[in-house]
Amino acid sequence: MRTSYSALGTFETCPLKYKYQEIEKRKTPKRAEQVFGTVVHSALKRMFERDPLYPTLEEVIDYYGRTWREAAGKVVWIKPEQREGEEEMYFAEGVKIITNFYRKNKPWSANAVELESRFSASIVDEQSGEKHVLSGIIDRLDKDPNENTYEIIDYKTGKRMPSADSLADNLQLGLYAIALRARWPHLQASEIKTSLYFLKHNDKVSIAHTDETLARAKTRILTLINEITRRMSTDDFQPTPGPLCNYCGFRSLCPMWSHEYKKVEAPAPDEKQVSLAISAMFEIKKEESELKKRAAAARSLILLYMEKVGVLRVFGSGGFITKQIQERSAFNMGQVRPILERLQKWETILSPDEKKLSKLLIDLSENDQNEILAARERKTITTLKVSQKKKIDEESDSDDSTSASA
Fold first, then answer.
1. Is the pLDDT assigned to residue 83 strictly greater than 90?
2. Which terminus has fewer CB within 10 Å in the chain: N or C?
């Protein structure tokens, strides 16, 4: 399989988007933020090109302005009537980003050996013997002549800037490091540094690689490739709705959102009935919310009464309610976290998650498993089982008839 970080990242985000984009090759209109990112990347590439001198800040901004004006005409604006204002807003944002970046990163102070270089690297699955090809574009590759190390730099125009700790197993950085090492096998993992430069913050986050981080990256890449192959055989590409849906060009096609885009002039059969059912569902959910509040208040009062009079079951005209007490084991995440951080595994569960932690245990050594299992705590769970009178009577009738036939 030939794939890229972009394709693998898309699959992780939403398998259905991967199918539309990578398998069916459907095209979507370019959104303003996508075009903006491409133009800013182009301007930064121009900044580090020496011909024969490096361009001045004014020349880079002039290049950016001309490129942006031309590209903006190809953007499908969400609100065409607001295009002029939004176009100027993006332009001003780009000028700010480039100005701040240039002042902090003088082009002659870096040793950029490659700009927007394309790569194509092989990766072999030792278990199956299959060979796959990783491809992509590296924004910038610098060489530090003093330390004889290489730094892969990728520019980001997004708002969110993660911590360095969260990038230890970043898929993009791991894939790029593997690609560089495949091109230059003599490089040691410690001689490769990868960085994400967040332009709106005018700062970068970097990680130094080890043989272990590259091995984990390779395992993750092959796992994703194998999962994609498996799903292709069954055409199982389910959508994964989330915040990024707002920026997806396939939203109107996706079964999670397509009903929102249904044309009024061509309603589906029973559209009116469905509309009424949807309204009814919202009303029902509202009533359920109120009932849950009432049930919670009643539960607290009943438990308090049971505790006070020392009973495990109370009766009423509608049936009876039984108090059930269970003990369950749960991990103390405060104790588990330093263990997983030492093993560089904490980020694999991302947040204190019992299910993810249980899956992770399988891959750890016996000593590490025992250390984590020692952090389990016993928790007492109290529930109330409600038995309605009608159900009780039905069960009683059933028992009577069985005895009689016997």
1. no
2. C
Quote the pLDDT of residue 366.
Answer: 74
User: Could you give the CA distance from residue 119 to residue 178 in angstroms, rounded to a whole number?
Assistant: 11
393: nearest Cα among 294, 332, 318: 318
Which fold, 2-233? Lambda Exonuclease; Chain A (3.90.320)
Q: Contacts for 156-163 with beta carbons within 8 Å, 24 or more apart?
A: 156/196, 156/197, 156/198, 156/199, 157/33, 157/36, 157/37, 157/40, 157/97, 157/199, 157/200, 158/198, 158/200, 159/200, 161/198, 161/201, 161/203, 161/205, 162/205, 163/205
**Domain ranges for the chain:** 2-233, 267-310, 311-399
Give per-residue pLDDT as tens, 117-134: 999 999 999 888 999 999
Hey, what are 38's tokens? 């491409």
- Residue corresponding to tokens 């059930």: 324
CA atoms within 13 A on the CB side of 338: 4
Backbone angles phi, psi at 345, to 5 degrees: -120, -5
Contact between 32 and 86 (Cβ < 8 Å) = yes
253's CB contacts (< 8 A; 6+ apart) are: 20, 26
Other CB atoms closer than 10 Å to residue 186's CB: what's the count? 6
Residue 22 gets which letter from DSSP? I
Greatest alpha-carbon span in the chain: 104
